[in-house]
Design brief:
single chain, about 250 residues, Rossmann fold, six-stranded parallel sheet
């Protein structure tokens, strides 16, 4: 991995990282990109035939070119691209990536995993070098709740179970996904710029997630309030049914 670009004192840039097949027009990632001026997509390429090294390199280039602190909002196989980038990039904790929202991370380790996910096997299990939240659904056909929790434990991520919402994609009919935006704000609040500190490696701290369980108040659903210890500060498999590329076999 190359050197990171010069970081300025602006608020974090949000980079969305889709999974296999990309994110269609009604996916929450696409809607966030359209509605938020601070949000843009990482164009990983090879959406239907992903290659781990290519995706990790593209992600690295986007992070280094951001010119600002970065928060990642990844879905499904995109979460594994983020984890592999963290494994290989060697950044110090919290800089330049200050945090990540990792939604419905694809299970690339199970025997029945889609063949196109093989390049991302095995899942990295080291603590991520930034604050993070893993969000999972209790009826996701592409990753079990237990496996998602296991990944969160290994990554040092706060874990949130939002109940039965499938793969948390366009088929889940979440629209702009207000609850996800609230969790994203929790991650962004961990950035030093949000707290009036000068740019540079932040001091050790935890993500301010004490109110994360508020998302359960809008409608009945479970939220796992168990906190996994954060490390010391040192895909979407299938195209969305709302897109033009519906493919039952591409749901990670």
């Amino acid at each position: 991995m190359g050197n990171f670009s010069q970081i300025d004192a602006r608020s974090p840039v949000v980079l969305t990282v889709p999974g296999l097949g990309g994110s269609g027009p009604s996916h929450w990632q696409t809607l966030w990109e359209q509605a938020r001026t601070d949000t843009r997509r990482v164009e990983l390429g090879m959406w239907n035939r992903p290659h781990r090294n290519v995706w990790v390199t593209k992600l690295d280039q986007a992070i280094r070119a951001a010119g600002a602190p970065v928060v990642l909002a990844a879905h499904s196989l995109g979460c594994l691209a983020v984890a592999w980038w963290a494994e290989l990039a060697g950044q110090t904790y919290g800089w330049p990536v200050t945090g990540a929202l990792l939604v419905a991370p694809a299970d690339v380790d199970r025997d029945t995993a889609h063949p196109t996910l093989g390049a991302f096997h095995p899942s990295p299990r080291k603590p991520l070098p930034f604050a993070s939240i893993v969000v999972a659904s209790s009826d996701d056909p592409w990753v079990s709740l237990d496996h998602a929790r296991h990944l969160a434990d290994g990554w040092g991520s706060h874990f949130v179970d939002i109940g039965a919402h499938g793969h948390i994609n366009a088929a889940s009919a979440l629209g702009w996904w207000v609850e996800g935006q609230e969790l994203l704000e929790r991650v962004m609040d961990a950035a030093p710029q949000r707290r009036g500190r000068a740019p540079g490696p932040p001091k050790p701290r935890r993500v301010p997630l004490t109110d994360a369980s508020r998302i359960s108040r809008r409608r009945p659903r479970r939220c796992d309030r168990r906190r996994a210890p954060l490390p010391h500060i040192a895909s979407r498999a299938c195209p969305d049914p709302g897109s033009d590329r519906v493919a039952a076999s591409s749901a990670a």
